[in-house]
Specification:
Helix content is 6%, strand content 57%. By secondary structure, the chain is mainly beta. The chain has a single domain, classed as TonB-dependent receptor, beta-barrel domain (Maltoporin, Chain A), CATH 2.40.170. The longest helix has 18 residues, at 28-45.
Length: 755
Amino acid sequence: MTSVIRVFLAFATLSFFPGYLSAQSTTSDSLATQVSLREVVVQATRAQQNSPIPHSNYSAQQLSKQYHAQDIPFLLSAVPSLVETSDAGAGTGYTGLRIRGSDPTRVNITLNGIPVNDAESQGVFWVNMPDLVSSVDEIQVQRGVGTSTNGAGAFGATINLDLSKVESQRFASINNTLGSFGTRKHSIHLGTGLLDNGLAFSARVSQVLSDGYVDRASANLRGIHLTGAYVDEKQSLQFHLLSGHEITYQAWNGLPVQYINDPNLRTYNVSGTERNGSPHPDEVDNYTQRHYLLHYKRQLATNWMLQLNGHYTRGFGYFEQFKADQVLANYGIRIGDSSTTSTDLIRRRWLDNHFYGGTFALRWLPEWSWKSSVLWGGGLSRYEGDHFGEIIWAAQYTGVLNDYRYYDNQAAKTDGNLFMKVETAPAEPWNLFADLQIRSVNYQFEGYNNELNQVDQTAALLFFNPKIGFSYRLAAPWQAYAFAGLGHREPNRDDYTQSTPNSRPKPEQMLDLEGGLRFTRGVWTGSVNVFHMQYRNQLVLDGRINDVGAYIRTNVPDSRRTGVELEFNGALGQSWQLAGSASLSQNKVREFTEFVDVWDTGEQISVQHQNTDLAFSPALIARLEVGKTWWNKVNRAGKGQSFGSSVIGKYVSRQYLDNTSNRTASLDPYGVCDLRLNWTLHKYAGKELNFIFSLNNFLNAQFVSNGWVYRFVSAGYDPRPDDPFAQLESGSTYQLSGLFPQAGRHWMATVQWRF
């Protein structure tokens, strides 16, 4: 792998400089073909301008104005109904997002239409794709069930990242970032542009480092993105290699709730502290992930275009833990007559997986109506994962060899889908949309049978996901639209492996109804969107222990989300810019039964709840950004400079950690204000020199964006003196709560040099 990267970088670098390969662009016909062919993948998984699906687009230029080293969830903060969070507290390392209260497992992510969500957990780990934003040409976020795409079903949103653009001119850029908590990013990006022979190459190498706001929540992330492309008048072939390696100190346990108001303990990290003396230095997550993407696009005829895609993702790595006083029998170790039954040990839990497959898109523009489009698409993928654990050290003799493997199981998942999308404009103000998808999931895994023995099992599911909608052009500048879509999602790995066929949960189903108005006039754009999302069998944690003794998610028959979203962007005069978004929603579970552990008896009691709030679903999210261009002086030759500032404020109302609407188990509302300065020099040193400075949370708000809770009854024992995660709820009912505090006032500064 290293030698391949070196050869690729060397060739890309030689191609960049004159004298080795001609850096002149190909004919204008080739460039026009590149644009039209690129539309195939865009059309396949993305919403179009007049689509009845609520969506937001963010170009590379927009993203670059605010990008330092933070992950994509923080760059998408302006999306209506979105809440971003970070384990380390400052936007690097493990980060996540929720859209309309839906966690990352319910948000579909694709790269050039290729699925990114983990096949088993269905989550996305941005930490495995460092500095990905530097390669992105555009990000589109579709809220709700969205248009049909490849991979896991979307309930909260679909996020499409487009990396398919081929630059026509050669380029080079160097980016360096410094910031609070030892944060820094270093990146170099080179590209040949489109050469006379139709070839184009680019290479990016990046490193992101941070100590984290939370104690020891460090991140060491390294990323490489290599591309090669061939474009002629009828076709294009493009290859991507995205390789990421991360070593991140664990901070996913959260802060003990008793420490949240103590300024000296607010950044305390419990990870690694089972070790006597100093915390275990290698309590880390160490993972490598490589994405290989191949795209072939061809214009078959004037009105027919085809795209074929192949993909392969290789992932491997572990997380390491120091565990004190572990019972050896729980690891399958028995030493006969020895008195050693427990010991301190270090274990590693490994993932070793392969994900591969192909997708296609065939677009037809009927000759009898160029205002119509028919697109057939789909894909087939296979996931093969090996899960195993090793003991790499023990304080006492255990009688087993080093790297003893104490569990090992494999899983395989096949995911296939076919869809057809039709858009037509039968009359001038109307645009009609229909989208039909069939998706098949076959999952093979090791789980429990009805006799509680672990055996190989299979789950086979078939989903039909229809969607229809229309848009209607009212008197300028207004457009109205309506949409209805049905979506399904399968349970995740733990739902299957920690249950029997009798206790296994059902798939989730959601009916998504959307409607609204869009406004476009001059530099002003805006939208008002009303949504109603009706769930059937939504999976939630209710505290229940199933027949194999595991706390699992169970199906709630009836739950819903109803709300309104606002979004606007524009300018006041020549120097003021204004952008904002807001969402007001009601997110309810009609009725469910909570099961609470009773520590005194080892049993559970049940508590009935009605019309409670769904977890992590704030009723109000609002964001406003006010920008001012202080000067923008560029001469006819393109030389000059510009300077601007922006103030951004965001408010998130109360969030509940579970579905009980208990204020003790909730996160307080919070508001955050950021300041950003942008100074750009055009053609003073190379093509462009950008300086970005951000003072984040400049009012130093102390807030928490994420957490977890476990409720129990203990009449005979008060756990609070012994466990800082414990707090009293009422009477003899307690909670264990972990919180994820976010950083107070902190800064970042970036220099982007493009030449």
